[in-house]
Write a structure and sequence with these properties.
Layout lengths: L5 E6 L4 E7 L1 E6 L2 E5 L6 E14 L2 E14 L3 E5 L3 E3 H46 L1
Parallel strand pairs: 1-7
Antiparallel strand pairs: 1-2, 3-4, 3-5, 5-6, 6-7, 6-8
C-alpha cells in the first residue's frame, strides 16, 4: 500500500520553516488554488505572495508565503521563498503587538494626566503671580 503522506519542506535563505510529513497541500497560485496529494505528478511553478494550507493528522495548518518557487517531486514538495511565517507564529506576533499597543496607550494616558497636572500647576502659579501685581 503506498504511503499516504508526502514530505513538505519550506525553506527561506536563512532557515527551514517546515519539514513535515503531510497528507495534502493546497497552495495559492496566480490563477487560483492547486491541490497536491502524495505521489502527485512532478512539476515546478512560480508562487505569488499568498497562502499555503496543509493537512497533517486531520488538522489544517496555514503558512503565509512571500512568493517563491514550488517543486513537486514524487515523494516531496519543496518550496523556496524569501520569507514565510506559520500561522501560530503570526498569532503570537499579533498577540505581542496588541499587548504592546495596550501598554503604549496606558503610558500615553498617564503622560496626558501628568501633562494636565503640570499645566494646572503652571496656571495656578501664574494666577498667584498675577494677584501679587
Amino acid at each position: 500500500m503506498p504511503d499516504k503522506t508526502t514530505k513538505l519542506e519550506i525553506r527561506t535563505p536563512d532557515e527551514i520553516i517546515l519539514n513535515e510529513d503531510v497528507t495534502s497541500i493546497r497552495v495559492q497560485v496566480a490563477d487560483g488554488w492547486w491541490g497536491i496529494l502524495p505521489h502527485h505528478a512532478p512539476f515546478i511553478a512560480a508562487l505569488p505572495v499568498g497562502l499555503l494550507i496543509y493537512r497533517k493528522n486531520g488538522k489544517q495548518h496555514y503558512v503565509a508565503l512571500a512568493g517563491g518557487t514550488l517543486e513537486v517531486q514524487r515523494e516531496k514538495v519543496l518550496i523556496l521563498t524569501a520569507a514565510a511565517r506559520r500561522a501560530d507564529e503570526l498569532a503570537a506576533l499579533k498577540k505581542a503587538l496588541e499587548e504592546r499597543r495596550r501598554e503604549e496607550e496606558k503610558a500615553a494616558f498617564h503622560a496626558r494626566i501628568e501633562y494636565e497636572r503640570a499645566r494646572a500647576a503652571l496656571m495656578r502659579a501664574l494666577m498667584e503671580e498675577a494677584k501679587k501685581r
